[in-house]
Amino acid sequence: MASIIDGKAFAATLRTHLARRIAALRHDENITPALAVVLVGEDPASQVYVRNKAAQTVEVGMRSIEHKLPASTTQEALLELVAALNADAEVDGILVQLPLPDHIDADRVLEAIDPAKDVDGFHPLNAGRLATGGTGLVPCTPLGALMLLKDRLGSLSGLHAVVVGRSNIVGKPMAQLLLREDCTVTIVHSRSRDAAALCRQADILVAAVGRPRMIGADWIKPGATVIDVGINRIALDAGRTKLVGDVDFDVVAPLAAHITPVPGGVGPMTIACLLHNTLTAACRRRGVELPN
Ligand code: NDP
Fold it and tell me: Mind telling me which Gene3D superfamilies this protein's record contains (predicted)?
């Protein structure tokens, strides 16, 4: 039976460490990093995310600035707000919560964010830096997944990692991060032939698909480490619902060496890494050393 990778506990430790470093930054440099979060519209899941981000930002000792705009906000008005946040010397990180309403071109908005303040790591310049080996800001969810992997396995060098999913926010940056760790990387997507056979070659399997319990026992090499990024809400009886991953945990856990649960695996790492990125951005753009 696999050992469980407890992302909730790891994220709590990471936040404690961040709080200590942020206190040192305030003490030594009189800097309190500030994260601005922009929410457009009333999507209930986004409202919960934004509330959690703000609470955890304050908890670790940073400043949280929230901009809640109505769903009718025009693209021009949103771009003006982003420009104002770019120009504000006190703002270190800018996050525009996705998804945006249909009438707004999300790519244009993300590209308008100053790459030095792009704590989500979605700006093409940061994506390019990740691909070319530079030091940009890295998307939070894959960064969190990588931290869990390195904590559990140590060096990843030479391991065969298979990433299922190729989105710009999870799959592609995950693959780049694993390549940077000297893994041999395979990316599986919806057009891949015999995805299960490809996944059976994996020492490390990362699932970022968005299909409940798609990865079954016949997708796993015994002894593999399995990272489940998927968050899917499924219906139970009597109107109840449940969160499940992309991995069929009950049949995969007996085969794997290590596995992340859903919830409580990769999910909690995302906000912790957002706070980590905000501290990094604050130090880099203000030209001070990152406290240890
Ligand atoms: P996207 O929908 O953007 O991407 C899904 C990817 O899965 C695509 O690349 C798609 O391939 C691939 N895919 C779809 N069906 C199959 C299939 N049958 N076989 C192989 N590949 C397939 O999703 P995201 O990357 O944004 O998110 C993935 C999951 O991670 C979701 O469950 C999401 O909720 C979760 N998530 C969790 C986060 C967290 O933990 N905080 C943060 C972000 C996401 P193709 O490109 O060919 O269409």
Answer: Leucine Dehydrogenase, chain A, domain 1, NAD(P)-binding Rossmann-like Domain
Band of residue 153 on the pLDDT scale cut at 50, 70, 90:
very high
Q: Report pLDDT for 190.
A: 98
Which residues does ligand 1 sit against, CB inside 6 Å?
141, 164-167, 169-171, 188-192, 195, 208-211, 229-232, 266-267, 270
Fold: same for 29-114 and 140-268: yes
CATH of domain 29-114: 3.40.50.10860
Adjacency order of strands within the sheet including 63-69: 63-69, 34-40, 93-96
Q: Which of 168, 172, 176, 189 to mutate for ligand 1's pocket (most ligand atoms within 8 Å of CB)?
A: 189
Domain boundaries along the sequence of the chain:
29-114, 140-268
Work out the pLDDT band at 16, boundaries 50, 70, 90: very high
- Report d(CA 284, CA 265) in Å as an integer: 29
Mean pLDDT within 183-200: 98
- Tokens representing residue 70 in the block: 């109505």
ipTM (interface predicted TM): 0.99
Q: Is 287 annotated as a binding residue?
A: no
How far CA 228 is from CA of 50, 245, 286, in Å, comes to 23, 6, 36
pTM higher than the cut 0.90: yes
Distance CA 196, CA 174 (A): 19
Angstrom distances, CA of residue 173 to CA of 139, 227, 231, 261, 281: 7, 15, 18, 21, 18
Which residues lie closer than 8 Å to 16 by C-beta, 6 or more apart? none
97 is catalytic: yes
Backbone phi, psi, residue 181, to 5°: -85, 10
Compute the chain's Rg from CA coordinates.
19
Beta-carbon contacts of residue 233 (< 8 Å; ≥ 6 apart): 241, 242, 243
Q: Has 150 been annotated as catalytic?
A: no
Fold topology of 140-268: Rossmann fold (3.40.50)
